[in-house]
Amino acid sequence: MLNLSFQQILIFDVIFALVVFVIYRLAIRYQFFKNTIIIIYWVAMIIYLVWRLFFTMPHDNIVNLIAGILLYVAEIGGFFLSTVFYLLFAKKHKRPVKTLAEFEDGKYPTVNVFIATYNEDEMILSRIITAAKNMTYPGVHKVYVLDDGHRDEIKALSEKLGVNYVSRDNNDHAKAGNLNNGLDVTDGELIVTMDADMVPRSDFLLRTIGYFADKKVGFIQSPQTFFNNDPYQFNLFSEGLIANDQDFFMQSIEAQKDAYNATMYVGSNAVFRREALEDIGGFSTGVITEDMATGMLVQAKGWKTAFVNENLASGLAPETFGDLITQRDRWARGNIQVARKWNPLFTKGLTFMQRVIYMDGIHYWVSGIYKMIYLFAPIVFLLFGVYSLRASLAGIMLFWFPAFISSQLAFNTVSEGRQTIMLTNVYETVMAPYMSFAVVREALFLSKNKFAVTRKGVNTDETYYNWRLAMPVLVILALSILALIKGILIMLGIVPFKEPVNAVYINVFWLCYNISALALAAFMPFERPRFRKAERFPDNKNVEVFSLDGQKLGTGNLNDWNEIGAAMTLNKDIAPNFEEVVSNGIRVLISIEGHTIEGTVSRNKVKDGQVDMAISYVNLSEENYSYIISQTYALASTIYKPVRYNNSISVIFLSLIRNHFKVFQKPKKG
């Protein structure tokens, strides 16, 4: 080992870690040091992989050799993924903002807004239709509800809200076919595509249409954001602690892809030039991820694309672990289908970097298989004596440790706090069994080419553990714990083991790393109640409360509200007879910014002269409904304030311990 003693290797590791950490701290502020830490990672990783290939591959028997090759392939695959990832972040990209002022002649393009729906309920559709209809735009924009559910009630809703309803005789090609049918019956110059659960902000068109003053722009994409908690946030009791697991891709990776005209179309929150869609024959069909294929083919035709990194529309993330798995299964299979039908390596018109980026996106879905190899390698070694690598502890510390520590810090540097490598490890571990199964099944043509719609708007008062979905993770976790116990017993000399104890140390550490993610993954199928029918939005607007006969009962501030109800705190100047006049079930009027809304009191607690009160709306007018939507779901992006998250694994564990065994609160209405 280069004639170094173990003590010298430890000294080297400490010095290396200190130097890299200093560079990491500098990289937070300076791009030069950010690139420096990326280069250090690449060099350390290449040295490690060379050492792995020539000095650690097991050759004593065929089983060990196969295990060693599988692990090495997983490491090489992971290195390729990280290489493209860091190439994207080698230079910070920020697109200049374009506004409607770009149209100097004041002639704004006509816009058609497509709301594609299949089985979403009226409450969800009412939000997006109202918000889409009321978007601010000096030009002409028309809203079209494209209903593949062929529902009379949705047709009636569209007519009531004053937008166009479109259905068709069949459901050919699922969502892509639905959008293409919309193209056939409309004539707008620009097409906005919105998933039914998304809600555009009032300034969506103001912040996006300006880019189309450049006649070569084919489409723009803005990030998908979410106003509810996804299963990671909710099932792990981490609301407010970690971001939605899609946020990093949507708001960071997509922005960096934009530097290479390779922003991926994600199916919603996008605006297309009709001419660009006609250039490729409409939205792509024949795959279940028509969005990715459509965007790639538009770029292959030479059209410019742009990523507008602003929160311009928010929607519903999957609300149960099962729905999350369904969604990611569809994405994984769809990417394999795209690779089969329009392989980016051979798609004419793509630039070199576009090919690399799209292939990397497809390759990402194979990483579930890599993660499964990482999870099983230490298990099969300690339980069955199957080697994946033959290395001394000194070799691991000299070659693996620098690559490991630099990878941790490099990722945390480029993610700028939006995500950590430990949190990424949890996401990958949670998805690995299901993602790898989906990819293998699709690769072997065992999947049905079926578009599965992700359920949205789930609310329930049930608490249950989804044992069927949990089983793969529980089995791997149980095997990991069993292997860890055996490893500890080997180190204590209680259980004999034919292999060197140094190898046991390495695999025990490996298991501890895996178990930390598997333990959180085991909580993911634990579904706790989602009582509310709609998410509540915090606010502090002034509010006045009146009885139905006009008596002023108090003033205060909103706490939160939605289209169903509102919660508020009234100040100490409440009417002297407040408790006599107002009780649960009593009708009251509340006034907010000149809007008078009738409601039934559902909560009314008086303490120290202040009142904690909640109401459920009654006879909500269309005008008041539009006002509430504009102040909650559709709040202008210039007013909306993004949330910053901790994203710490230790904080998640603490939250789980603190909350998991608490008695669940009683259901709240609205």
UniProtKB/TrEMBL annotation:
UniProt entry tagged with the keyword Transmembrane: yes
Domain Glycosyltransferase 2-like: 190-401
GO molecular function, one term: cellulose synthase activity
Cellular component terms per the entry's GO annotation: plasma membrane
Stretch forming the signal peptide: none
Residue ranges of the TM segments: 6-24, 36-54, 66-89, 362-387, 393-414, 473-497, 503-526
InterPro entries in the record: Cell_synth_A, Glyco_trans_2-like, Glycosyltr_2/OpgH_subfam, Nucleotide-diphossugar_trans
Domain of life, source organism: Bacteria
Stored Pfam families: Glyco_trans_2_3
Record keywords, A-Z: Glycosyltransferase, Membrane, Transferase, Transmembrane, Transmembrane helix
Membrane association type: Multi-pass membrane protein
GO biological process: UDP-alpha-D-glucose metabolic process
Intracellular or extracellular location(s): Membrane
Protein name: Glycosyltransferase
Species lineage: Bacteria, Bacillati, Bacillota, Bacilli, Lactobacillales
